[in-house]
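Work Package 3 (structural annotation) set out to generate three-dimensional models for the target panel prioritized at the project kickoff. During this period the team completed the workflow that converts sequence records into C-alpha cells, so that structures can be stored uniformly alongside our sequence database. As a representative example, we reproduce one entry of 302 residues exactly as it appears in the project archive.
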Amino acid sequence: MSVLEERIPVAKYHGTGNDFIVVDAEESVPDRPAFAKTHCNRESGIEDTEGDADTGTEAGADGPPRRGADGVLFLALEGRYSPPRVVMTLVQPDGSVAAMCGNGARCAAAWAAERTGSDELMIDTPAGTRRAAVDGGRVTIEMGTPSFHPRDVPLAGDEELVEADVEGLTVTAVNTGVPHAVAFVDDVDEADLEAVAPPVRHADVFPQGANVVLASRNDDGSFSQRTFERGVEGETRSCGTGAVAVVAAAKRLGLVEGDDPVTVSPPGGDLEITVPDVGSATLSGPAAYEFETELDVAVRSR
C-alpha cells in the first residue's frame, strides 16, 4: 500500500483572532486528525501564499498572517432545510474533536450564509443544534444553557466546583459546550498563563480535561479574558465558549446581575455575551473571511 497526496480547496476564517481552516465535508479527507495536525501547525502549517489575508485589527494582528490555525472546521451544508443547516465537526490541532466552539460556529455560519444567502442558519454540533443569525460581518449564535453540574462539566467528584482551589488557582467549573475552569484575577495581562494553566487543564478533578480561562473585571463592568485551550494546548487569541463561561461564572459568583449583555474581551477583540436566568446564552461577534487556497491530503492506494 502506498500513500499519495491530493489537493483540496479550503478557506480560512477567523472570529476575533480564533482562526480556522474550513473544509467542505464533501471533500474527501480520509484521516481528519492527521490533516489537522499537519495544517494547523503554527510553524509549518497553512499560510496565505497570496499575502492578502483580511486579518483586520479585530484579529489582534499587527504583522503578517500567522501560519497554522486553531482547528479545522469540516462543514456539511444541508440547504434543503429552512433555515439551512450546517453539520459542524471541529478537529483540533492535536487531532481531537471538540464538542462545541463558539467562534468556530460563528465562522461556520458566515461560511454557510455566503453559500445560501440566508441570514439565519442552524449549526449542528456534538453539543447540540444552535441557531445563528448573520448581520453583515457580525454573527450571533445560541450557546445553550451553561451547566455547573458535576456530570455535565464533567468532574471527578459529585459536588460542584465553585471557587475551589485547583493546582494553585481558585476556579469555578462550568460547561458551555465544553468544560472550562474559570479563575478571576486582578489583571489577566500580568498572569503567566502558560505556567499556571497546564496543571489545571490536566488536573484529576477534570477527567476529560478542561480549558483554563483567566478573567479580570474592568471598571465599566466588562471583562478581559485569556484562555489556554484544551486540544490546542496553548493560548488562543479568542475562545467563544470561554467568554460565555466567564459571564456564567461571574453571575454564579455575584459579579454580574440581570440578563443584560456583557462585553468580554480576549486578545483578539470584543465579544458580547448574554447569560439569561432562563434560556440559552448567546455569543455575538465578528466572523471574517481571510483567504482561499488548496492543501495536501494524504490518500492511501493499493
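Residues 102-116 form the longest helix (15 residues).
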